[in-house]
Amino acid sequence: MGDQRSGDDQEAAQRAEDFQRWLLDEHKVSLSELGLELRCSQSGGFGVFATRQLGPGSTLAEIPSAGILHAGRVRETAFGKQVLQLLARCALAPEELLWLYMIWGRAQPQESCPWRAYLRSLPLEDPLAALHGCVASAQWLSGTPLAEAAVAQLVEQRARHARLLAVLGDDGFPAAELFSFEAWLWARSCYVSRAFGWRAFPEGSLGDPGFQSDALCPFLDALNHNRKAQVEFVFSPHSAQILLASSAEGGYEAGDEVFMLYGAGLGNEALLSRYGFSLPRNPHDRVEEVAFHLPPGTSPSAAAERLAALRAALPAVVATQAAPGLITVKLSEGLRRRVDETSVELLRAASLLASGRDYDDLEASCAEKRDAAKATAAALRGMLRGTAAGKAQPRSGLLLALRRRRRTRAVLQAALKSGQRKTSSRPPPPPPPPAAGATGRAAALYAWGRRRILRDAASCATTEAEMAQLAAQMHQGEGGEEQEAEEQSEQEGFDGQSQAGLSLTSVAAPSQSSSSSSTAPQGPGREVQLPEAGRGSLGEDEEVPEYHVQVDGFEVARRTRHVMFSLTISRGDARWPIRRRFRQVVKLHEQLLEGLGRSAMKEGLPRLPPKVTCRSWWNGPQDDRFLAARASRLQTYFEALLRYIPYVDQCEALREFLCSVDVANMSYDALLDLGQALGRAGPQAAQVPAEAIAALPRRGEVSLGGCFCCVICQEPMQKDEDIRFLPCGHEYHYECIAQWVPQSNTCC
């Protein structure tokens, strides 16, 4: 076996030497001048290595346009013209002509085919053998999307090859025996795994635009893949180049293998299907499609309704009925390794297919979260059982998994009782079992990585279902104690707010403020403002209530961790801010229910946002997404409430809730508007004209009238200022009284 390996190495070295000589003789490309060489790499096959230091901006590979092989170039050869003539009735595709030329060219002498040295530098075996019937690979790919795609692709290519070969044989093509199905798959695999897309080249540089294929770039396609490689591609009408990016960190030293990037974010499924290899622990691995088995007894009509509901609720996903009772869902982002939380998209799909109800992550109860998570876990475990990697776990491993699950449940119960969140510490996954050959290893790595993703996602969903179940039980048992503590804390907060607010019956004239903002004050904790799109609005045909509530955002206090919602109340031109906790809204709702008693109007009150959701149990009551959803629901609640109770002044509880104002951050003009708004009880007096105010008598320099301070602005009155007398005898600055009287129509 050692002699055979030595002979293979010598033969590979000879092919690499012939190829480098061909580059220099035919296309004037000197690898030594570029500081590069071609030789066998550790991963098998050829690789490009640096012979000197290469820094950012260095050329890693280059080939002139005359050295690029594509269908347009083959079309001009004698071989291409003959084949196109023989296969005219078969509608030969441009890439198929290139494949036939690759098969023919590698078996010809250099004199007959000028591309022989390059074609012989390509892999001797099928690069995509894992998808083309390899026994070891087929076992690992069983139950994966690649297995079904590979079978369909193999059937299609076999039928196409048989048709073309039959025509070539009937017409007496001299080298028809060269074009076996194995050779056809080899040429196609080399093309798929090595060709550069034709769209990357300038228009017209690859021949007739109506007959062009992707291009094979000798030497450029010899660079192996590394996900951390930082390269730049330059395709011009004269050449194709790969450069080390000028922004790259570091470079290559002599002896280092030079890499390129086949594509960003390529998981093992893409790498195996396009290039024939897989990477261990690929961080870009993901499972894009999840298969759901509908509950037993689901009728075809019910299955069709649930599928239609899923498509309507989640337009970003692709849902298809693969078989009766089986629906596959292609997720928009897919599942990845080591997930900490099941995606809402997956939970919604599971809930819609299992029960026909949509799942709202922000308002779902613990029972709804439990059911959605259980359906998700069942689907993922079913996919695990259908794969070879999922069946590879020995019985002892299953027993250990069951014991681990029991310990996890005990830890979750203890964590919930102590008020702590779950902390996950999964053991490292076992290494994939050995597989014979590089092809088998690539398939095993892909299958094992897929298994890890499904296992992690199923474990996460199972844990969430158990957490939701425990949370529901604890919420039922401890709801009374929590309610009592919250009400006591809320009462203290509400009393403090009321004492700092304004009276409902009188508004004192405050001092002028330099700030005119009506937003709620910022506290020491974090504050979140809602976007305009998330705020409420009325329809065009709806009657505008006299009062309007705008929920602007929320703030989490750093010390007490209480959540205060910032609201802006408006009535006519007056606007004032208030800050309320959710418990105060609940208290208002309870007061309204108590006031209505057994009246039929009690049933028409809008529904409050939920006090507790599974998300608030899972992530805590200060979770930003939960609070943002609550703020949005509060906006809807207040709009519906003010439409249902339009006469706020006749409802004491609602008026007190809306009009207990914190005046610390209100400007003088805003307080004037507020005073007028809150004072609208009886008929409005006629407006005082501006001419009458201007005609008020002016105070003389020697008269002080016993008043040294303007009670509107609270500033002292100087002798040189414009001071006016009112009929009641009071004195004010003219600028102050000119603003006050038109708005209040009163002096005192």
TrEMBL record:
Residues 415-440, 471-545 are annotated as: Disordered. Residues 479-493 have a biased composition (Acidic residues). Residues 543-665 form the PX domain. Residues 426-435 have a biased composition (Pro residues). The keyword Metal-binding applies. One of its GO terms (molecular function) is phosphatidylinositol binding. Residues 710-747 form the RING-type domain. Keywords: Metal-binding, Zinc, Zinc-finger. Residues 503-522 have a biased composition (Low complexity). CDD domains: PX_domain (cd06093), SET_LSMT (cd10527). Transmembrane segments: none annotated. This is Uncharacterized protein. It comes from Polarella glacialis (Dinoflagellate).
